[in-house]
Amino acid sequence: MTPSHQLIAQGIACRRAERLLFRDLNFTLQAGQALLLRGPNGSGKSSLLRLLAGLLPAEAGQLTWRGKDVRADRAGYRSDLAYMGHLDALKPQLLVLENLQFWADLVGATVPVENALAKVGLGPCAAFPAQHLSAGQKRRFGLARLLLKPVPIWLLDEPSTALDASGQRLALDLITRHRAAGGIAIISSHDDLALPEVTTLVLGTGLASPGKFGGGGSA
Fold it and tell me: Cβ neighbours of residue 34 under 8 Å, at least 6 residues apart?
């Protein structure tokens, strides 16, 4: 595997306000691999995803992608990732289709918005104002955003939250397909997504809690 297919974190530390969430965090992910983030509320799972997305600065350490420190080409790194956070990222008064078209224009989509909505089961809701979507449908909208443009890295914060059984199967299938195509996925989840061949990183509690790796399977 060449360096261009590796995401490497070395000695990463993260601070929010006066609290050091974690330090000395290290991992290497290659094409097709997934990292599952576990830990209690406040342990830094969401902060780590935001840090990896370039939305939060690291207190210390280095993140390398395509053989380069991401700080050397922030725009290039960000164009290679998709981030699905806690927020719905929807304007309630706009139609569902209009909302997704906004994101399509922003990321330079290569997949028609109608196709992305259909793949997550929101085709019949395209002409609805987004404010009428249920919590689960809003989460499906977040999954649709991931499908607008193929990118190597997915950063997913609780992707199965509010989803029913069929929605959870959909999320698992999309992640599986992404990995099969050579994508990398880093996922924070309290649910058991039954991800095959996944490495688990457990973030602890208290100040300066280092991450610990678990074995394959979702712990």
Answer: 175, 179, 184, 185, 186, 187, 195, 197, 198, 199
| Per-residue pLDDT at 212 | 41
Taking the model in full, what pTM does it have?
0.91
Position 4 confidence tier, pLDDT thresholds 50, 70, 90: low
The pLDDT of residue 204: 75
Q: What angle do CA 175, 111, 56 make, to 5 degrees?
A: 55
d(CA 112, CA 174): 17
- What the block records as the tokens of 122 is 């929101």
Q: How far apart are the first and last CA of the chain?
A: 27
Q: DSSP readout, the chain?
A: --GGGEEEEEEEEEEETTEEEEEEEEEEEETT-EEEEE--TTSSHHHHHHHHTTSS--SEEEEEETTEEGGG-HHHHHTTEEEE-SS----TTSBHHHHHHHHHHHHT-SS-HHHHHHHTT-GGGTTSBGGG--HHHHHHHHHHHHTSS--SEEEEESTTTT--HHHHHHHHHHHHHHHHTT-EEEEE-SS----SS-EEEE--SSTTPPPEEE-SS--
